[in-house]
Structure formats: structure tokens, C-alpha cells
Amino acid sequence: MPDLYTSYYSPTTLVEALALKADLRGHARIVAGGTDLLLEIERGVRKGPDGNGLALIDLTRVPGLAEISEGDGRIHLGPLVTHNQAAASSLIVHSAFPLARACWEVGAPQIRNRATVAGNVITASPANDSIVPLLALGADVTLTSAESGERSLPLADFMTGFRQVDMADDEILTGISLRALTEHQRGSFLKLGLRRAQAISVVSVAGALTFADRSQTVVTSARIALGAVTPVVTRAAESETFLAGKPLTDETIAGAARLAVKAASPIDDIRATGEYRRAMVEALTARLLHQLRDGREREGWPQRPVTLWGGTGGKWPVGARGEGRGASEASRKPQAAIVNGESVELPGQMTLLDSLRAAGYAGVKEGCAEGECGACTVFLDGMAVMACLIPAERAAGSEIVTVEGVSDGAQLHPIQSALAQSGGVQCGYCTPGFVMSGVKLLEESPHPSRDEATQALTGNLCRCTGYRKILDALVAAGQENA
User: Fold this and answer.
1) Which of 6, 153, 240, 480 is deepest in the core (most CB within 10 A)?
2) In a 10 Å sphere around its CB, with 0-12 CB exposed, 13-18 middle and 19+ buried, how is residue 283 labelled?
């Protein structure tokens, strides 16, 4: 198997990470979640300036980078804040709801436990969900270089083109800030995808409206952002101007929705035609404005989103690291990890999925190798993740649980027993992933509702048949715990 990357570095301070980036520059990429980056490297989309492989600089061992805070009327996100953290944050849900809603729409729980808001911004795809509300909420980004120091710029200026950003080879994105909604403001996010979960946006719309008073009838100003309909996420400027000073009547909403289409220049692609996207821009903008007028923007929002991160709080342990972080020869050394309670030497320069399977953990299945099916779900330091999207070296000094480790000797885990009793085991190939998601669900919700079970399994794909018996098993396992 060819090496996926040339070398791997795991700094424990931001100063160390900045020094590495200054030294390696375009020959290295920063890893926060890596859910986009590893796929891009494997597909040949991301290469070094010489056309060869890339080194990885993983920030997840650096303390203090996964914090969410508030100050001066703005909310601040560290570069390691994940989508699940944002969706579960009471501060963001209360004061930046469009971002919380968008982060909840990203991928599935296992993806959201790794994927970061900063990574979404740097990838700069117009279909990336969290960029749209960030633009609507007036976000700024902060970039830091060992040589040039720190600079901040508006998100709109940071995105310079399709998947292109204003970031030097020696810079690291070290922070994002956005406006907190006030008591006279309301906002939300809507997304149209081709399925209920794990869907790339066909069209997305985020809006933040400022009202004249608490009656929230007359709009004084508006910010509306559109995703997946231009090369970069864009603002619907004519629609915003039209709304200012008007009450949100049905006629006003219809007019603003029609004007939003003028900001869109969608293309035909595999997900939709340009004509369909233009129609959906109008429909989603109108729906969003109706929700904001009627106070229905939070309908369907879960009281406690299912995260599958157990008792970790969604933050990765920091400070520890494995051996061999220098030249590529050093990074070829096996990395010690604790797998199912035992110290194991895992091969590197590949995904954690390939590394675990090479080490004999056959229960970790490869279904898609793209983070789509969940068959490779494992627990990394207590959180459910997709092993196919994680560098193997990240396991150094960490604890991993695979499906082989969830039972207590011959005593099956309640999830395993319930799957067998309900007939939810079918062909069995995807079953390890379902088991892992179910086990972690019971940790955070010992008696899950059917809706919570459905949320937990949005990252797991069954190719045999339906999900009814699998969902039955998760609910039944919780009842057994009662």
C-alpha cells in the first residue's frame, strides 16, 4: 500500500506548530479534523508544490484551541472547534442559532466529532454548510504566522474564489469570530439536500434579521447568504436592501425571495440543474423569512442533540503525543496506541482504518473509505469517529475501542444482544458500525427515544434493507437498561 502522506507531526504548542508551518510551508497541510483533507490527498487533489506528497501537521494535541467564548458582542471559535461542539453549545444555540443549525446539518455524528468549523472555512467550497451562516453573521477570521504575526480579515475577503482563500503558506487559521444575535435579531439556516443526512447542499440559505423593536414586525436591516449557487458563498444584496424598513408581510417576503435569485448564478451538476437551484433559492429564502417572521425557526431543533461523544465534552485530550515526529523516516516508526485495553504498535502513513485492519482488527470494516457508510466507526479517546478519515499516527498515545472490545468476554453488550433478538443483524458487514454507534448512544442517553436512535444512526449505511429492526434494537436495548 503506497504511503498516503510523507510525514506526520504532532506539535503540543501553537508556537511549535507555527514553526513547523514556516519551515515546511506548501509541503505541509494543517490537520484539525482532516475529514476533507485525507480524501483530497488520496484523490490527488491536494499535493505539494513539487507535485509530490504532503506532510501533515496535526493540531489536535495543542491545548486551548477548541474553546468557544463570548466578548465585545462577538462569539469566538478556536480552530479546533468541531461542528458537534457548535451544535451542542448553549451559547451558539442561543446567540448564533444559524451556525448551530448549519453545523447540525453537516455529515453525521462521527463526522461532526472530527470536522471543524475552521476546516470548513479553509476548504471554501460554496456547498460547505457552516460558511453560509458565518457570512450572514459577519464573521472574521484570524490568521497567524511565525514571521508576520497575526492578522484578521472579514470572511468575505478571505474567500477569494472557488475553493481558494487568502492564506499564506506559513499561516495557520487560529480563530473565527462572529456577531452574536441581539434581542432584536432573529436568524436561521435552511438546507436542501438529496437525502436527510450525509448530504452535500444543493442549495442553502442563512439569514439574520434586525427588527425595529420587540414586536419584530418591521425589519431595519437584513443579512442573507446563499450557498452552493455561486463559486463562493455570497450575500443576496438586493434582497437585503429591499427588506430594510419594511414589515414582513407575505408580499414583502415574496419580493425579497425573488430578488435573492439575482445573486445566484448556479451551474448544472450531478446534484441539480441551475434552473432548479434558482427556483429553490426563491423557495428557501421565502421559507426562511416566513419562519423568522412567525418565530418558527427553531422548530424541530433537538433539545439535546445526539453527539456520540460520551462524557468527553467533545474536546480531544491534549498534551500527549507518540514517538517519531521528525523526518519521514521517523514517522515510519510504529506508533503505540491502546486498542481495546492493550498496547499495540500501529503502522503509519495510512488511515486509521487501514492501520487497524493491518494490525488484525478485522471487525473494523471498509465500506466506502470516504466517511459515508460508518462501517469503520471506532471510539477514539471516547468519541465515535470514522476511522477512514483519521491519520493512523493520531492514535499514538490515545485509547481506541473497536467492535472487538465492546463485549465483556463472552457476555455480549446489550446493543449486540438486542440486534440479534430483533433480527437487525442481516448480512453483518455493516453491523460493527451500527454496534459502535448504538453503544455510544446508550452512554449519553441510557433510554433513547426512537428519534434519538435515528439521530445516532445517520452516519451508518445499511445496504441490505430497511432500518426498522436496527432502530428497534437500539430502543429495546435502552428499555433493558431501565
Assistant:
1) 240
2) middle
Grid coordinates in use for 274? 441551475
Q: What pLDDT score was predicted for residue 321? A: 47
Q: Where are the beta strands (DSSP E) in 259-316?
A: none
- Characterize the bridge pairing of strands 55-58 and 7-9: parallel
CATH for 68-294 is 3.30.465.10
- 76 three-state secondary structure: strand
Alpha-carbon span 335 to 28, nearest angstrom: 20
Span 188-206, average pLDDT: 91
**CA–CA dist 400, 139 (Å, integer):** 36
Distances (CA, A) of 304 to 18, 46, 444, 452: 37, 37, 10, 9
Q: Specify whether domain 407-481 bears CATH 1.10.150.120.
A: yes
In order, the DSSP letters of 407-462 are SBTTB--HHHHHHHHHT--TTSSSHHHHHHHHHHHHHH-SS--HHHHHHHTTT---
Strand partners, 73: none
Q: What CATH number has the domain spanning 7-61+316-404?
A: 3.10.20.30
303: pLDDT strictly greater than 60:
yes
pTM greater than 0.70: yes
Q: How far apart are CA 480 and CA 418, in angstroms?
A: 9
**CA proximity to 475, closest of 441, 433, 425:** 441
Domains 68-294 and 407-481 share a fold: no
The 377-380 sheet, strands edge to edge: 342-346, 335-339, 399-401, 377-380, 383-386
At 462, the amino acid letter reads: C
HSE value, Cβ hemisphere, 13 Å, CA-based, for 144: 15
In order, the DSSP letters of 338-397 are: EETTEEEEE--SSBHHHHHHHTT-TTS--S-SSSSS-TTEEEETTEEEEGGGSBGGGGTT
CA dist list (Å): 90 to 112, 181, 300, 310: 17, 13, 16, 18
Q: Pick the more confident residue, 334 or 114.
A: 114
Contact 343, 359 (CB under 8 A): no
Domain ranges of the chain: 7-61+316-404, 68-294, 407-481
> Across all residues in the chain, what is the average pLDDT?
92
pLDDT of 114 > 90? The answer is yes
Backbone angles phi, psi at 145, to 5 degrees: -130, 145
| Cell numbers at 347, concatenated | 503502522
158 phi and psi angles, rounded to 5 deg: -65, -40
In which band, very low, low, confident or very high, does the pLDDT at 19 lie, cut at 50, 70 and 90? Answer: very high
Express the helix, strand and coil content of the chain in percent, nearest 5 each. 35, 20, 45
